[in-house]
Specification:
225 residues; 40% helix; two-stranded antiparallel sheet; five-stranded mixed beta sheet; GTP Cyclohydrolase I, Chain A, domain 1; GTP Cyclohydrolase I, domain 2
């Protein structure tokens, strides 16, 4: 009965999207194997899974699937796990003395729910107020993409993006809002295809009501071109 209860609690935690830490749960030996070694191991695991499900891997449509999935996991979906892949975010002096907030909105988010390994798809909106330093606009997109490319929890990802930009820019005045659909909700369980999940993290001046409202108003602006 104790084991059954434990399984129930684990399943409930997965559905509730509970995260145990603001850091991704990565083992210390996570990067001892090369990408090629990981691909070989995962390929065999995917092959075993498909064969267990009764799939015929001699079929032309399936025979390359284990390798494709393994490469996708290592080289694409979970590429952001490796710290060497963190984007180099060069900063510059704010010579033009721009003193208002800068907002980069509608950044595409493709991530993976770490509880069911199903996609998280949505948009991130990121803003900061310079204290004398600015960063290239595309670097904000790349930072979002880096933290998205791993098994994730949306709350954690939102916080990681803010903390990374705070460190890069040397200011606490950073904010992020993410609105995303979770296929673990949309395609399984309750199967609610309409709902989405919104998370936010506000630092420094963005905790002030007026600044927060200004940021949210920018997000809601109609900027279709």
């Amino acid at each position: 009965m104790k084991i059954d209860k434990l399984f129930e609690e684990i399943e409930e935690q997965g559905d509730n999207h509970i995260s145990s830490s603001t850091e991704n749960p990565i083992r210390k030996d996570a990067f001892e194997k090369s990408d090629e070694e990981k691909i070989d191991l995962i390929e065999q695991d995917v092959k075993n899974m498909l064969e267990t499900l009764g799939m015929d891997l001699t079929d032309d449509s399936l025979k390359g699937t284990p390798k494709r999935v393994a490469k996708m996991f290592v080289k694409e979906l979970f590429d952001g796990l490796h710290p060497d892949k963190k984007p180099k975010a060069s900063t510059f002096e704010n010579k033009y003395k721009y003193g208002e907030m800068l907002v980069e909105k509608n950044i595409t988010v493709y991530s993976t729910c770490e509880h069911h390994l199903l996609p998280i798809v949505g948009r991130a909106h990121v803003a900061y107020i310079s204290n004398g330093t600015v960063v290239g606009l595309s670097k904000m997109n790349r930072i979002v993409d880096y933290y998205a490319k791993r098994p994730q929890v949306q709350e954690r990802m939102t916080m990681q993006i803010v903390r990374e930009l705070q460190e890069v820019l040397g200011t606490q005045d950073v904010a992020c809002v993410i609105d995303a659909k979770h296929l673990c909700v949309n395609s399984r369980g309750i199967r609610d295809i309409e709902s989405s999940t919104v998370t936010s993290e506000f630092g420094g001046k963005f905790k002030e009501a007026a600044t927060k409202r200004e940021f949210l108003d920018y997000i809601n602006m109609d900027t279709e071109f």
